[in-house]
């Protein structure tokens, strides 16, 4: 090298942190996503195998049980009662256009969910269809898509995402999805309005996933938390329809789908009845209350055991479902979320081997995330350790099992000090933070940190980066796009022998350091002053005072 040539800048020397064994991570993901575990469906033989395996791994790692109390001792699990509903046989679904009827095939043009409102039979004839825009009632934004229309005995048809998704600007955060854009909200609002049912028009871009994901997630067993009045949260019929079917039905009623969609971008939109178009349905629903389990491990704090840092991940996936083109019926869930579950086991091992933290650390593997964040919702509503003294929740969901990236992201980018601390920690490894690259997908509301966040607990869900050390952004984006298209919520989400797990091992060092620093500090990170979650956290400030 010539004397005048500048020496290349040295990469920052990573701080001391435990090393995470890539072979062990790979083996755990392989086992959890094997056919033997039958897709890890809640309340199946797959759940039993999953619990037995994860508990055995945590025990061997030196973690202590942190679940329900029994006879003064902690169990390894927290019992989660759930309502489980199945459509018996194939539902009879018929659309009538100008007195001519035709059958709709479940999973093809329409995907109807098993009723969660307590009905054991769904039977109605010629229910009118009413297009209700995005199905949003947001008084604080002076927005009402319903305009007082009576939906009793009617099926509302609505669009997915927010009114400003297509234009990218407006009162709903531009491209970033608000909770109003989530399908969960739309069903809840339909129930509040007294609608017989609600059908969401599927479009790939605003939904952020294809029809295969909709079909696989909605035509199998449905679960919900046990509610005193389920009809207040769920209309009788909940489902999705393909965009092509919606366009055809609108046209039959003399309406232009695209024109009405554009009208729905505005406050002035008024609901429109699809004249001459009705829907009929007849199917039995079998419902029962079952008990699933959250898995809970714990390392007791040496000085402040009543203060808790939580690492979370969901252990469940979709179980056994409809066959894919190859005839495969097992939804193995390797990336989603055997990776996060393996991360939890190895995080427990790292803390158990290291110096005991001053605050307690909990390793929470929740059930029924795929059914609507139900395990985390149950824990957050009936916490084993007080939420007021829960320092932070660090969630891992669908981590990248391949090589390292130069960056990382999070599900959503809500302003909070916990995120600031994560960004600063990652910088010590030379990683840059990229705000959620697809805020329109509403990932903030789709991961297990959300039930904690909405109750004020600082919470973040870590996401692997796309700027790969080997191949850059182009390679990383191609990889993630292919995953969403070909594997996400499909039987093809299977373990690969080629996965190196080197990126995940490095990312876990960062997450360990973040949690360990908090567990050995007196800090109580909070939300930004203008955050919608700040108020709930501040209400419990007295319980942390002087601690």
Automatic annotation (TrEMBL):
A matching Pfam family: Peptidase_M28
Stretches for region Disordered: 1-23
Keyword Amino-acid biosynthesis: no
InterPro entries with a match to the protein in the record: M28_fam, PA_dom_sf, Peptidase_M28
KW Ribosomal protein (keyword) present: no
Regions that span the bilayer: none
Keyword terms of this UniProt record: Aminopeptidase, Hydrolase, Metal-binding, Protease, Signal, Zinc
Domain Peptidase M28: 294-506
Descriptive protein name: M28 family metallopeptidase
């Amino acid at each position: 090298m010539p004397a005048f040539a500048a020496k290349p800048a040295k990469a920052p020397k990573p701080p001391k942190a435990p090393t995470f064994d890539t072979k062990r991570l790979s083996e755990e993901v392989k086992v959890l996503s094997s056919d033997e575990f039958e897709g890890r469906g809640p309340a199946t033989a797959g759940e039993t195998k999953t619990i037995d395996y994860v508990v055995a791994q945590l025990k061997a790692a030196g973690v202590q049980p942190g679940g329900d109390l029994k006879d003064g001792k902690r169990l390894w699990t927290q019992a989660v009662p759930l309502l489980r509903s199945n459509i018996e046989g194939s539902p009879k679904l018929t659309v009538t256009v100008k007195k001519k009827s035709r059958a709709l095939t479940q999973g093809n043009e329409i995907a109807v969910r098993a009723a969660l409102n307590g009905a054991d039979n769904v039977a109605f004839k010629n229910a009118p269809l009413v297009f209700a825009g995005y199905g949003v009632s947001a008084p604080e934004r002076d927005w009402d898509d319903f305009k007082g229309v009576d939906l009793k005995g009617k099926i509302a048809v609505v669009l997915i995402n927010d009114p400003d998704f297509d234009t990218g600007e407006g009162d709903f955060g531009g491209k970033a999805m608000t909770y109003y854009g989530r399908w969960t909200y739309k069903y809840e609002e339909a129930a509040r309005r007294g609608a017989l049912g609600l059908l969401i028009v599927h479009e790939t871009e605003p939904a952020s996933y294809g029809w295969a994901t909709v079909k696989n997630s909605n035509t199998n067993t449905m679960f919900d938390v046990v509610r005193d009045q389920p009809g207040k949260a769920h209309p009788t019929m909940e489902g999705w329809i393909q965009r092509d079917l919606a366009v055809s039905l609108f046209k039959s009623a003399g309406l232009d789908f695209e024109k009405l969609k554009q009208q729905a971008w505005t406050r002035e939109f008024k609901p429109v009845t699809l004249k001459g178009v009705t829907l009929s349905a007849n199917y039995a629903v079998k419902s029962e209350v079952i008990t699933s389990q959250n898995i809970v491990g714990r390392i007791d704090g040496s000085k402040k055991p009543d203060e808790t840092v939580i690492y979370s991940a969901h252990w469940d996936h979709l179980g056994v479902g409809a066959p894919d083109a190859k005839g495969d019926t097992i939804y193995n869930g390797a990336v989603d979320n055997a990776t996060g579950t393996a991360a939890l086991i190895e995080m427990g091992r790292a803390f158990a081997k290291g110096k005991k933290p001053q605050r307690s650390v909990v390793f929470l593997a929740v059930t029924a995330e795929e059914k609507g964040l139900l395990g985390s919702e149950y824990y957050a509503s009936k916490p084993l350790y007080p939420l007021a003294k829960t320092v932070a929740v660090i969630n891992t969901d669908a981590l990248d099992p391949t090589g390292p990236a130069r960056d990382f992201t999070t599900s959503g980018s809500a302003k909070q000090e916990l995120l600031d601390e994560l960004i600063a920690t990652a910088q010590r490894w030379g990683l840059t933070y990229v705000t959620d690259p697809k805020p329109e997908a509403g990932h903030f509301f789709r991961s297990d940190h959300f039930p904690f966040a909405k109750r004020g607990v600082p919470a973040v869900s870590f996401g692997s980066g796309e700027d790969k050390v080997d191949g850059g952004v182009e390679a990383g984006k191609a990889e993630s796009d292919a995953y969403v298209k070909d594997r996400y919520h499909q039987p093809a989400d299977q373990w690969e022998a080629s996965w190196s797990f080197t990126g995940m091992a490095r990312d876990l060092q960062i997450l360990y350091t973040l949690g360990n620093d908090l567990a050995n500090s007196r800090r109580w990170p909070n939300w930004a002053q203008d955050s919608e979650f700040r108020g709930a956290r501040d209400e419990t400030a007295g319980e942390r005072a002087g601690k």
